[in-house]
Specification:
alpha+beta, about 10% strand, five-stranded antiparallel beta sheet, about 375 residues, 3 domains
């Protein structure tokens, strides 16, 4: 009863809080299984708006007569919009329509969060070295982009191009002539939500789960290291699995991130050093590339090296919990007043979410080792 009340409260609080709940649902290593199970309802069962609102939006965008068939019952609802099944020129399409007042509600929620962050930063000055304020502003920028569905249509086109030769990954294709700020029309892709598989893991053979985790990791690493264009909202509700060939169908790329040349060099150097177990280089790279007031640089480097060595002391890289590793690094950053660039935030969160999802499917998932071929190809190993 209390968990159901929590879900309803999150839905009532607004879309920003729904987005945070979606992220938390993937972190079964941090939160109780029962809590994650209930929070997962936010991935595709967010509060539904009325059909009257959808009709009004379609009429305003001159789309009322565009479809041969339109199912008035939503097939899914997220924090920003809900989705319908329809047919356009005898092809199956998904029609995404923004919820009422989405933009104003985002602004309201972000105002509240800014006040909370400012208060916490005033009470605990050391926390500013975690870039909380900058991270919130980056999040605000990304969410404002998400409430204009034309941005998602452009992202879909780019992902569609980036993965056009991939056999294991599918992105829906937008129908640009029907897209607007409040409406997105894209090809309808049939599949089962990976969140459904997670909630009943015993029904999926372990070999199949391992293949899905491997495909997800490979896709993500290509986004980061090959394309530098990352889908930053990869919660289970945005990933489907095709029933016949286990392809991954990726939805809702409204939030994306790309690193600057400087940030990408630093990101690759840190990843490479972690894979090689070179904790000293990790510490030196972070210190060299970050704003900092570190009074004892050598102590900082030694502590980062200790974190990496401790993680690498496991029997294999597959045993390393990447999100735990990142959290321990952040603790050292805060203590020594070293501040990483806020551009890293979205990619770091994407790593944490994907790692939580991947480890649920395959406890032996080897994210760091899987990255090694990309790093070797770029000649980052000596």
């Amino acid at each position: 009863m209390w968990l159901d009340l929590l879900i309803r409260t999150i839905q009532a609080c607004g879309p920003v809080y729904v987005k945070l709940g979606q992220w938390a649902s993937t972190r079964r290593d941090l939160f109780p299984h029962k809590l994650c199970y209930h929070l997962a309802k936010l991935q595709n069962q967010a509060k539904v708006h009325s059909w009257n609102h959808t009709c009004e939006i379609l009429e305003n965008n001159k789309l009322s007569e565009s479809f041969e068939d339109f199912d008035t019952t939503p097939i899914g609802s997220g924090c920003c919009a809900q989705v319908y099944y329809a047919k356009y020129k005898n092809e199956e399409v998904a029609v995404k329509v923004l919820h009422p007042d989405t933009k104003s509600r985002f602004l309201r929620d972000l105002t509240v969060l800014r006040s909370i962050v400012n208060s916490i930063s005033w009470l605990f000055p050391q926390l500013r070295w975690l870039s909380i304020k900058e991270s919130l502003e980056e999040f605000a920028k990304l969410m404002n982009i998400q409430v204009d569905l034309r941005n998602e249509a452009e992202n879909l086109l780019k992902f569609h191009h980036n993965f056009k030769d991939e056999r294991n990954v599918i992105f829906p294709k937008p129908i640009l002539e029907l897209c607007s700020e409040q409406v997105l029309v894209e090809s309808f892709e049939h599949g089962t939500s990976i969140g459904t598989l997670i909630q009943d893991l015993d029904s999926t053979p372990i070999d199949s789960r391992k293949r899905l985790a491997a495909k997800g990791v490979d896709m993500f690493l290509k986004m980061v290291f090959r394309h530098n264009f990352v889908h930053c909202d990869l919660h289970p509700g945005n990933i489907l699995v095709s029933s016949n060939d286990e392809k991954l169908i990726i939805l809702d790329p409204g939030i994306t991130a790309s690193l600057s040349n400087k940030d990408m060099r630093n990101f690759r150097a840190v990843f490479s050093a972690v894979v090689k177990g070179d904790g000293k280089t990790v510490g030196e790279e972070i210190l060299a590339q970050s704003e900092q007031q570190c009074e004892n640089p050598q102590e900082f480097i030694n502590e980062i090296e200790k974190v990496v060595v401790t993680a690498r002391s496991q029997l294999s890289l597959a045993k390393i919990d990447v999100s735990d590793l990142l959290n321990r690094v952040f603790n050292v950053l805060r203590w020594h007043q070293v501040k990483m660039e806020p551009n890293f935030t979205s990619v770091i969160i994407a790593i944490m979410v994907l790692e939580g999802l991947g480890r649920t499917l395959d406890p032996e998932m080897d994210l760091l080792w899987a990255a090694a071929p990309f790093l070797v190809k770029d000649r980052l190993f000596s």
